[in-house]
Every structure is written in C-alpha cells, then in structure tokens.
Amino acid sequence: MSNLRYGSATRRSKSPDSTAALDDLLEKFGKVGNAAETAYAVLREAIVTNALAPGTRLRADDLAKRLGVSKTPVREALRKLQTEELIAVQPGSGLTVKVLSEEELFEIYYIREALEGMAARLAAEKSGQIELANLRYVLADVEAAHAKGQLDKLRASTGDFQLAVFRAARNERLYRLLKHLQEHMRQISTSTLTVPGRADEVLAYCRDLVAAIAARDSANAERIARENRRRTLELRLRILRNNVAAG
Length: 247
Description:
Helices cover 69% and strands 5% of the residues. With 247 residues, the protein is mostly helical.
C-alpha cells in the first residue's frame, strides 16, 4: 500500500482564518468548564471542523496566548487530543494536527462500512416514530441544500443525516464509535461532493435509506449504507491521488 497522505506541506502553515475561527469557538465553548476543559473543547472543534488543518503545528505557548489561558491547561488538552489520535508527533515538527495516510484512510472506511451497515440494520429494526420523524426532518434539509446547489450546507446536512441514522439504531456505544470516526473525516477540507454527480448520488442514498428504514427492511438498509461508504472511499482515494499527482 502506498504512503500517500491526506495533507501536504503547504497546509502546515497557520490558516489566515484560524485566529478568527478560534475566537468564535472560544466564545461558543467559553463556559463549558475550567480552563483545561475549555481549551480541549475549542481545540477539538477547531480540528474536526478544519479551522486547524491537517499538518498544522501546535505550540502550547502560542495556543495559550490565543486562548487566553496558561500553558498547563493547553498541554492537558493536547494530551487528550493525542489519545484520540486527532493530533500526533511529527519528526522535526513536534505536535501537529494529524494527517491521515492512505492506509489509515482504508482502515477508517472499512470500519465505518461495517459499523454503518450495522447501524442502518438496527435502525430498520429498532427505530421508533420519533427517530423516523427526525430522519425525515434531516432529509428535508439535505433536499433543500441539494436543490440550491449549496455544497457546504449539503455536506453538513449529510453529516447530520448520518448522525440521525446512528441515533435511530438505539445503541449508544455504536453511536459514539461512529461519531468519533465521522469526526476524523470531518477535518478533511476536501469533499467528495465536488465530484460531478456525487451530490445526486448522496441525495438518492439518503432517500433510499430512509425508505428502507421506514419499511423495516433491515437487509436493504444495511446494503444501502455499505454501498454508500464504499463509494465514498473510492471517491476520496481518487481525490487524494489526483492531488498528489498535481502537487
């Protein structure tokens, strides 16, 4: 397997918008707890939303100044993020936002395919009227974003749709696992929705999955979820390899 990586040296510099993004997140999470809890919440959200891009170097003293706290809570937050594999030590660079290798991409997607298939099956078997109503509500957001051609909103809405499916499975441990895996992919700024025709495929996937869950067709629901994840991996690899070839 090749050692292509989801990130590049050009992305290791500080994003010009990262300071403003951290300020916004600090305002949002400023009251979640003590200084260490606040630093963790802000930095984690910055990573999974790509405000701190893969490859960005993380210096405790710089982050402490930007967050208005001492270095101790920032270091504590960085240790927690390292255990979650959202940041990693890079030789010569110290701590950086983790850059996914192609091998890691395969690992995440193979796990997601299996678990999302299970979640879809369980949703078809166990979801109640509240979960079904929520799925249809989020599906309406997906349809609206698709109709307006708003890819950023469509990406966010499809992420919400996935979470709604995971919730509908009524398995809290499974939900937490899938949410964590989803967050590892959210930090990648590129989206498969930019591939021609993919937005139409995603809309069809969401509609078909809701129909299968509502019909209590667990086998079909699992098939739909697995096929969608395999298709997403195929497109992500295409984007990754094209970017490397172009770079």
